[in-house]
Specification:
By secondary structure, this protein is an all-alpha fold. The protein has one domain. The chain contains two helices and no strands. α1 packs antiparallel against α2. The protein is elongated, with a radius of gyration of 18 Å.
């Protein structure tokens, strides 16, 4: 993941996140307000589609090829879903904020 994705879309210096998934109120370097431009359910929707599709395809391939017991499916796919969702949400939230800034930069004041 490029580190620039997690920086302020205007100056490229300030951090975009405070914690794992919390967007900062404003950029510490240039003062760009960021919190009100959070994308709501958009990143969650795309994360569900992405991780859900990868999980379903992966589970089907593993089941057809190896026929493992159910507990092994759970041991493989539950951590994949949790980790994949958290990582993809972080990337998707940042990407949607950057895209919104580039398309509607005048609304960020």
């Amino acid at each position: 993941m490029p580190n620039a994705l997690f920086k302020c879309p205007r100056c490229g210096q300030g951090k975009l996140y405070r914690g794992l998934l919390t967007i900062v109120e404003q950029c510490s370097e240039c003062g760009l307000p960021l919190a009100q431009h959070e994308q709501g359910d958009g990143p969650a929707f795309f994360a569900i589609l992405l991780i859900g599709a990868l999980t379903a395809i992966g589970a089907a391939i593993v089941e057809i090829k190896y026929e493992p017991p159910f507990w092994l499916h759970a041991a493989i796919w539950i951590p994949f879903i949790v980790i994949g969702t958290l990582l993809s949400l972080r990337v998707l939230k940042a990407a949607l904020i950057v895209v919104q800034y580039r398309v509607k930069g005048e609304d960020f004041s």
